[in-house]
Amino acid sequence: MEYDSEIRARLTELEAEHRALDGAIEAMQARPSPDFLEIRRLKKRKLQLKDSIQRLRSRLIPDLNA
């Protein structure tokens, strides 16, 4: 099992990437002729990151049934 500090470090990385994708998506959408395929790909990656972040956060919650 990973230590909490390792999980928190990974969470920080994923959250930073998630925020960076926000900026990239906004910038692409502001272009005169946006690349909708690329925007879709970035949004899909952003959703994958969100799922990974949620899984890691749930691992930090202590198991109350133990």
Secondary-structure blueprint of this entry?
Layout: H1 4-30, H2 36-60
What does this protein structure show overall?
With 66 residues, the protein is mainly α. The model has no long low-confidence stretch (mean pLDDT 92). It is built from 2 helices and no strands. It is elongated and about 55 Å long.
Sum up the structure in keywords:
66 residues, mainly alpha, 2 helices, 0% strand
Oligomeric nature of the chains: single chain
CA-based shape = elongated
Strand content: under 5%
Low-confidence stretches: none
How do you describe this structure in short?
With 66 residues, the chain is mostly helical. It is 79% helix and 0% strand.
